[in-house]
Amino acid sequence: MTAALSISLHVNGERVDAQVLPRLNLADFLREQLKLTGTHVGCEHGVCGACTVRVDGEIVRSCLMLAVQTQGASVETIEGLSDSGEIADLQAAFRDRNALQCGFCTPGMLIAAQDLLKQEAEPDRERIRAHLAGNYCRCTGYQAIIDAVESTALARRGKRA
Amino acid sequence: MTSSPAGKQTLSELDRPNSYIGKVVPRPNLERLMQGRGLYVSDMELPRMAHVVFVRSPYAHAKIISIDPGAAKRMPGVIAVVTGEELASVITPWIGVLSHLKGLKSAPQSAIAIDRACWQGEAVTAVVASSRAAAEDAAEAVAVQYKELEAVTDMRNALDPRTPVIHPSLGDNLAFERNLDAGTVDAAFAGSDEIVEAEFVFGRHTGVTLEPRAVLADWNAAEARLTIYQGTQAPHMVQNLAALHLGLEESQVRVVCKDVGGSFGIKVHIYADEMATYALSKLLRRPVKFVADRVESFNTDIHARDHRCKGRIGVKRDGTIVAFEIDDLTGIGPYSMYPRTSAIEANQVVNLIGGPYATKNYRARARVVYQNKNVMCQYRAVGHPIACSVTEGLVDLAAAKIGMDPVEIRRRNLIADDAYPCASPSGLRFELLSHHAAMNKLMTMMDYDGLRAEQTALRKKNIHRGIGIASFIEVTNPSAAFYGVGGAKISSQDGVAVRLDAQGAVICQTSITEQGQGSESLTAQIVGSVLGVSMSRVRVILGDTDQTPYGGGTWASRGAGIGGEAALQAAKILRKNILDVAAAILQSSPSELDVADNAVVNATDGTPRIELRELARIVYFRPDTLPPGIQPELMATRHFVPREYPFAFTNGVQASWLEVDTDTGFVKLLKHWVVEDCGTLINPQLVDEQIRGGVVQGLGAALFEKCIYDERGQLTNANMADYLVPMSGEMPDIDVGHVVSPTAESELGAKGAGEAGTAGAAAAVANGVNDALKPFGATITEIPLTPQVILTALKRI
User: Fold this and answer.
1) To the nearest whole number, what is the mean pLDDT of chain B?
2) Is the pLDDT of residue B343 over 50?
3) What is the C-alpha separation between B789 and B787, in angstroms, rounded?
4) Burial class (CB in 10 A: 0-12, 13-18, 19+), B71
5) What local confidence, expressed as pLDDT, does residue A161 receive?
6) What is the Cα–Cα distance from B500 to B506, expressed in whole angstroms?
7) Same domain? B139 vs B219
8) Average pLDDT score over residue span B12-28
9) Residue A2 burial by CB count (10 A; 0-12/13-18/19+): exposed, middle or buried?
10) Edge-to-edge strand order for the sheet containing B116-117?
11) Min distance A86 CA to chain B CA atoms (Å)
12) CA distance B525 to B505
């Protein structure tokens, strides 16, 4: 089964119709066919977390999912989450805390962090560290990232109160 | 937490109104990276771009009998299948030696192996196709016949006469040896009260940049010009070497470096497969892209650290250290890496052992040997973690032997803060260090006495916590002494050009590069401060050999200290030029004027006289209104290189607080502290984050990271699931403090900070683990400190 298949999905709210080979993974589909290069490929075996995206609201490693599996799905990437403003406060906290250096892990890290912040209103540092424990960062040593996520959680809590 | 030794005065250029120096300001380039709108080489595409995939040797050492590309060439999308011999028509081999490392020898290395592969992962054939997937498919169809040869794997046997010589033309497997004998070592040991010896063993590890190495080479046959897009720390070095080996003039090669997904020294070298990619582009007359996959990264990104170092320390009962002696052995793979060589790490170990301490008696031997494993070379904090772990491990062993507290023995031996300038037994010259001030600050930050009390109390509950201390020195701001004197065309000077544009904004081109450290930010901070212009009006351009002044780039903790000073001096000249024009326009004199808040102001009271935007309008569009004879020059360029000291040494001390589970062998890091002295802090937040990131790379070495080879030279854990690096769950919070001793070599006074964290972190952890295990009488001098290593030392397994 090596012939291209048709898929239809939504990516960052836009409808996409595409022909994809069955073996094409979602990360390569986003990067190579849709030119959404904010989804980064660090290991291609599901360990580093740099390719994290959202599919139907759940975070997934796009290098471990085939593009054909996204038929009918809604895929959100860092470009979409940035443009919608959904993570603007989290990004501001990353900027203020210098929670990124080379920036290669950052899109995946932001999406994983937002996933936690959506689930839990009051994650403590240990909880944040545990939730992000599947996303490699080789530059920062993580502390600045934990600080930025923690301060975003606090600020969001303040807004709700 | 910053303190200055008494009597230091902040320099006026750094202290101007609204200065950004010493302030925490966000980096200008973060927004695009956070939005996924950066441009890494792996993101780039060009018209007619082809992809190269390399067929790599599955053997550590093998003769290549034949290569049959027939089936691969017939596969869909394949453009070319190129062997090493075919590629040799466009690119020459190289030898990784430097003349100042006397006796260093290496064999010629080709872009693609010819006749013989010398490590598992060496490229033996290139497959170029219209997509990476097509190239990977075809690579599987290339039929290579090998005859496996005996592999040299254990560095301890490499010099044994019965061991095969990897490169017969070299005579033996010894790449480099250095001997040093300073002071009166034998007499000192004879006069000591106690002598302690140990062998320190370091795992082979690697940088694991999150973006693998990536190159896009574009030979334009019509222009006879090669453009190389590469995530490199040293664009001009790449330009020089690509030209040299492709038979081009440097002016025919442009190197462009956009965003880089992690470097840490991994991307400061030129790799054979990168050379092959340049050559393939020239051969095939089209853009060719190479992006390593993760398995290739583990097998071909330089490895580092694999050392076995026997150490000896002599001590008096009063704690005086009388001598150090070491015998270091390291295996570097089959070739000395190009162009920086693979002898530098061992050389640094010899240089740095005992560096923080006052004793003048020091003997060292270091031997660097060839073996059939992946190449080793410079990775963040080159040699420092080895030297620091050996030195600080020996100091702790000596303290234990004479029953002295680890902090006390250091206080009795660290070079006094008022003893500078002075030199180490290995000849390192120290301008101004602050070991004691740093130690004092650390004691306060960590509440040393409180932790000792807590440790004692917890031991009664069978909870085993340890405190590890490690003082260190760090080589920063290297002059030509590092590479230039050895014949490598790697610039030690850097240049910055600054210009005021027609709207009163500033464009700044610098030869230092950015891989996330904050080069762009610190340059804008300095230029904005000196010029009196808001940072938002300063745009910094870097990473392009066609666009920036010539320079070294960002490595060896040199960007801020060298590139930053060039920026400061260039901005001063531009400010003077602006004031000259302003004085002519305002019928004033330059000495009565200054620039602040984007306007020329009265020097005395700060009253605005003319906006820079208006001044620029006149200069660029109405020069006819200027007085006769005035030719404004709103662009200035300056270069800088340290001349007085070969290196600007920094110093510091780290401490680790950890808990060892003596049943499972797991180490839990509870807290880590660093006090360091990098001179002037341009942006304290960026410095702290360099320190933290560096510490965590050192913690990886201490607890997790190791490239595990089997006896046939096969790397058995070449993937991210099996090669462990620190993750957020295991890492402690790290408190960072500073002592500030600016270097007088520059007006800026900044030294480097990029490697200090990595230099001492593993030593602090190892000392902490041994401190925790003291009740069990176990001493471990090996990293990584895996559960297996710890349980073995505890005789539990």
Assistant:
1) 96
2) yes
3) 5
4) middle
5) 63
6) 5
7) yes
8) 88
9) exposed
10) B116-117, B62-68, B143-148
11) 12
12) 14
To the nearest whole Å, the CA of A93 is away from the closest chain B CA by: 11
Q: What is the DSSP letter of B389?
A: H
**CB B787: neighbour CB atoms within 10 A?**
17
CB nearest to A138's CB, from B210, B692, B731: B210
A73 vs B: CB within 8 A: no
Tell me the three state secondary structure of residue B159. Answer: coil
B523 with B665, same domain? no
Mean pLDDT value of segment B506-523: 96
Residues B285 and B322 in one domain: no
Nearest to A98 among B27, B209, B695 (CB): B27
Residue B700: domain span: 303-339+347-374+381-480+644-793
Q: Which domains does chain A have, with CATH numbers?
A: 5-81 (3.10.20.30), 87-160 (1.10.150.120)
Question: Does residue B9 register a pLDDT over 80?
Answer: no
At B344-377, the pLDDT tens digits run: 999 999 999 999 999 999 999 999 999 999 999 9
CA dist., res. B325 & res. B398, Å (int):
13
Predicted confidence at residue B15, as pLDDT, reads 82
A114 touching chain B per CB within 8 A: no
The reply to whether B654 and B602 lie within a common domain is no
Q: Are residues B218 and B140 in the same domain?
A: yes
In this predicted model, what pLDDT tens digit does every residue of B686-742 receive, in sequence order?
999 999 999 999 999 999 999 999 999 999 999 999 999 999 999 999 999 999 999
Q: How many domains does chain B have?
A: 3
The neighbour count for residue B146, using CB atoms within 10 Å, is 18
Task: Check CB contact under 8 Å for B34 and A100.
Answer: yes
Q: Which residues on B lie below 8 Å from A78 (Cβ)? A: 35-36
